[in-house]
Design a protein that fits this description.
Blueprint (H helix, E strand, L loop, with lengths): L1 E11 L4 E12 L4 E5 L6 H8 L7 E6 L2 E2 L5 H11 E5 L10 H6 L9 H14 L15 H13 L5 E5 L7 H18 L2 E5 L3 H4 L4 E6 L2 E2 L2
Parallel strand pairs: 3-8, 3-9, 6-7, 7-8
Antiparallel strand pairs: 1-2, 1-4, 4-5, 9-10
Helix pairs in contact: 4-5, 5-6
Length: 221
């Protein structure tokens, strides 16, 4: 589902050149739940952003579902992301001025669905993550765990084949973190969703199919 070939990422300023990723080659089969671990600053989030087509590598190639992405325009990349990939972030990235239902509908605004269809799909996924009684609340009225459930609902409302999760349990206590992991595990098992998760938590990583470790921008396991 995801193929990275000799990915290198270099950040340059006028005086400094930083190698963030060094010769990363990685295949993520369809239906796999993969964890990426490593110390802070080792390139985990950079790698996830490249997988999600939010950032471009300095060298190397990316294929998503057998589609080479190197020659796609910004507009084509945006459309491809919207169709194929859902994102979950540690800091949720919810819009506080929008109600929960409206936050979840956001990815569907870039599709040709009607308002009725958007509302129905958003309502269904909020029920799936256990928040059907919070559709009219604002994010500021929710706990951290509830906000992350909203973020998951927003990520899956468009039925993407891939979920990329950056520290999805990082801001949560262990009990709530386990609940969020159970939602992700069920998505993987029941829907066959391919999931790549960056985490610092060894316990959470052990619940996934495979673990990749990074150190100083290189894959060490």
């Amino acid at each position: 589902m995801i193929r990275l070939q000799n990915i290198e990422k270099v950040y340059r300023t006028e005086t400094v050149e930083t190698l963030a990723l060094n010769s990363i080659s990685l295949d993520v089969p369809k239906g796999e739940f993969l964890s990426i671990m490593g110390p802070s600053g080792c390139g985990k989030s950079t790698l996830l952003n490249i997988m999600g087509l939010l950032d471009a590598p300095s060298k190397g190639g990316i294929q998503i579902d057998a589609q080479a992405t190197g020659n796609l325009s910004d507009k084509q990349l945006a459309q491809f992301r919207n169709q194929k990939i859902g994102f979950i972030f540690q800091s949720y990235h919810l819009i506080n001025d929008l109600k929960v239902l409206d936050n979840v509908e956001l990815p569907l605004l870039y599709r040709s669905s009607t308002a009725k269809e958007r509302k129905q799909l958003a309502t269904e996924v909020l029920e799936k993550v256990g928040l059907s009684n919070r559709v009219k609340h604002f994010p500021t009225q929710l706990s951290g765990g509830q906000k992350q459930r909203v973020a998951i609902a927003r990520a899956i409302v468009g039925r993407p084949e891939i979920i990329l999760a950056d520290e999805p349990t990082g801001n949560l206590d262990s009990a709530m973190g386990n609940e969020i992991m159970e939602i992700l595990i069920n998505l993987n098992r029941q829907e066959g969703t391919t999931i790549v998760m960056v985490t610092h938590d060894e316990q959470m990583a052990r619940k996934t199919h495979r673990l990749v470790r990074l150190f100083d921008g290189s894959q060490v396991q």
